[in-house]
Write a structure and sequence with these properties.
It is an enzyme of class 2 (transferase). This protein is α/β, with parallel strands linked by helices. It has a domain of 141 residues: P-loop containing nucleotide triphosphate hydrolases (Rossmann fold). The protein contains 8 helices and 9 strands. The structure holds guanosine-5'-diphosphate and adenosine-5'-diphosphate.
């Protein structure tokens, strides 16, 4: 934790299968990065590899609508026919501690978060190296039915067109290189003057005036 720095929100978006869950897992395993993962709520059915409360909080449609109506969500969107949303309370708590939070959300959610939280947001769009490779990854992951994969590939073409709205773009061909790119972005963003100035100002004062 760095009490002198404002916490930031790091958003990773990509079409389904481009690798944002994999990159998110790598980031969360690196404890020294001290990132807190935002656990979204979703009305989608749980995959066999997923744990309720860790990857998502799986909720009924009625509960999702209630959270929306009561302002419990920082942002929400309908993606591939399911509701997804970011619970607001944990975000406020983490940012207040000057810590950083990682979001795996789609372009609609990223736009809402940028709108609400402005300069505290750093957004990265992850592109697949090709549509052929994207299909291969979705098939290799073997978590979705053939129909779902087709739906996601069709949606991917539209989602990819949103890349210009992000601060950074990474092509996830070689995973280790893509991960290093994400680390470089985090390192640089953490040193931005507007994020560190509250903590650095007293240091500079002592440096200059003894
Ligand atoms: N707006 C929004 N999008 C989300 C949220 N959680 C997940 N998503 C997005 O929903 C899409 C589908 O996610 P998921 O069902 O996990 O499938 P995957 O992308 O194939 O792993 C992805 O683009 C996610 O980034 C959320 O809380 N809000
Ligand atoms: N650079 C890469 N090279 C090869 N396979 C990858 C790479 N990145 C991710 N994958 C694999 O592709 C599949 C989809 O990745 P995943 O992280 O689940 O994507 P997303 O969360 O964007 O839907 C997974 O099986 C993952 O192991």
């Amino acid at each position: 934790m760095n009490p002198g720095r404002r916490g930031m929100i790091l958003i990773l978006s990509s079409p389904s299968g481009a690798g944002k869950t994999t990159l998110t897992r790598m980031l969360m395993q690196d404890k020294a990065l001290d990132l807190t993962l935002s656990v979204s709520v979703t009305t989608r059915t749980r995959r066999s590899s997923e744990v309720d409360g860790i990857h998502y909080r799986f909720i009924e449609r009625r509960e999702f609508e209630r959270m929306k109506a009561e302002g419990d969500l920082l942002e929400w969107a309908e993606v591939h026919g399911n509701g997804y949303g970011t619970p607001l309370a944990p975000v406020e708590a983490v940012l207040a501690q000057g810590r950083d939070m990682l979001f795996d959300i789609d372009w609609q959610g990223a736009a809402q978060v940028r709108e609400r939280l402005g300069d505290d947001v750093v957004s990265i769009f992850v592109l697949p190296p090709s549509m052929t490779e994207l299909r291969a990854r979705l098939e290799r992951r073997a978590e979705d039915s053939a129909i779902t994969i087709e739906k996601r590939l069709e949606a991917a073409r539209h989602e990819i067109e949103r890349w210009r709205n992000y601060h950074y773009v990474i092509v996830n061909d070689d995973l280790q290189r893509a991960y290093r790119d994400v680390l470089a972005i985090i390192a640089a963003e953490r040193l931005k003057v507007r994020r560190v100035q509250a903590g650095v100002a007293p240091f500079v004062e002592r440096l200059v005036h003894g």
